[in-house]
Specification:
It is built from 10 helices and 12 strands. It is an alpha/beta fold and about 300 residues long. The strands form 2 sheets. An 8-stranded mixed β-sheet has the order 6-7-8-3-9-10-12-11, sandwiched between helices. The protein has a 4-stranded antiparallel β-sheet with strand order 2-1-4-5, with helices on one face. Helix 4 crosses helix 5 (about 115-125). The chain is globular. Bound molecules: adenosine-5'-diphosphate (ADP) and magnesium ion. Magnesium ion binds near residues 47, 48, 166 and 167.
């Protein structure tokens, strides 16, 4: 069993009108210690739901997620798995200053004297490029980028074994995004972090991650254990992302075709896919290994 093992997890939500959304459909993944997995896919494809299930805060309808052989929902994994969210203002208590925000995980997970906590808090602020004088400032007194640095420091305060980054840069200006990417790359090297970076942006993921998983409509359509081999991507949706990454004009895409036999068993990409035929609308392809470290879910590749 790998360090992190995700076995066929699914999660659906029912809206008040009774419509069912398959947010995550039978996703299986594994990750070894010290590796960083990038998960890309458009908004609404289930990335955050997957993250919350890995963090143990959302219970899958079916399937299970293991960290070093124990379910992520076990209490002992609360310290081990930390998460950084897209919107840092929502993720912090606005009434606590930065020093208090960083002290919380130290109080929860370690037994430290007040003095030790203060030293550790100051060290954490400096680790993420802020100064110890910032400890007295409140969230509203920081820029978005600075506040996201505090959220990263708070996650690191717990000394996690797995760091989940759910679109940590998406709400920031491009120049600030670049600074934070550099910070994350430094931290990853320094602490040999095991991480999952979720983004709708292949660019950021390519910079930071070692491995890649491409999601579409709740399902994985392609995975690569070596992200530098991006040109090997074959799934039509992954190719579409890649052509944007390479700055090419968009590739051929079907105009939302929908055959009458479309049901739950269809390939998640069938209605968008230029190659889709009856088989794709009647049977969902398995994510299967095509060569070492490269899996694709498509009947025709
Ligand atoms: P992403 O992070 O990729 O944008 P999400 O995981 O947030 O995707 O959402 C996947 C799908 O599940 C979306 O259709 C979203 O509307 C739905 N969804 C997510 N969370 C909830 C929830 N708590 N209640 C109802 N529907 C939800
Ligand atoms: Mg999300």
């Amino acid at each position: 069993m790998s360090f992190l093992e995700i076995q066929e997890v699914s999660k659906s939500y029912r809206s008040r009108k009774g419509r069912q959304t398959e947010a995550v459909q039978k996703v299986s993944l594994s990750l070894e210690r010290g590796r960083c997995l990038g998960v890309v896919g458009e908004s609404g494809c289930g990335k955050s739901t997957l993250c919350r299930m890995i963090a143990g805060v959302v219970r899958p309808d079916s399937g299970e997620i293991w960290l070093e052989g124990s379910s992520v929902r076990e209490k002992k994994n609360r310290k081990k798995i930390q998460m950084v969210f897209q919107n840092s203002l929502d993720a912090v208590n606005l009434h606590l200053n930065a020093g208090r925000i960083l002290s919380e995980p130290l109080e929860n997970f370690f037994s430290m004297s007040r003095e030790e906590r203060r030293n550790k808090t100051e060290g954490l602020l400096e680790l993420v490029g802020l100064s110890k004088e910032d400890a007295g400032k409140y969230p509203k007194q920081f820029s978005g980028g600075q506040l996201q640095r505090i959220c990263i420091a708070r996650a690191l305060a717990a000394e996690p074994e797995l760091l989940l980054l759910d679109e940590p840069l998406s709400s920031l200006d491009v120049s600030v995004q670049a600074q934070l990417l550099n910070l994350l790359a430094d931290l990853k090297r320094e602490f040999r972090l095991t991480g999952i970076l979720v983004s709708h942006d292949l660019e950021a993921v390519y910079y930071l991650a070692d491995e890649l998983a491409v999601m579409y409509s709740g399902a994985l359509v392609e995975t690569l254990s070596d992200i530098t081999a991006l040109d090997c991507l074959r799934h039509p949706y992954a190719r579409r992302l890649l052509s944007v990454h390479n700055g090419e004009a968009g590739t051929e895409q079907a105009e939302g075709k929908s055959l009458p036999e479309e049901r739950g068993e269809a390939c998640v990409y069938a209605s968008q896919c230029p190659k889709a035929d009856g088989l794709c609308f009647s049977k969902s392809p398995e994510l299967s290994e095509r060569e070492d470290g490269h899996k694709i879910a498509c009947h025709y590749i």
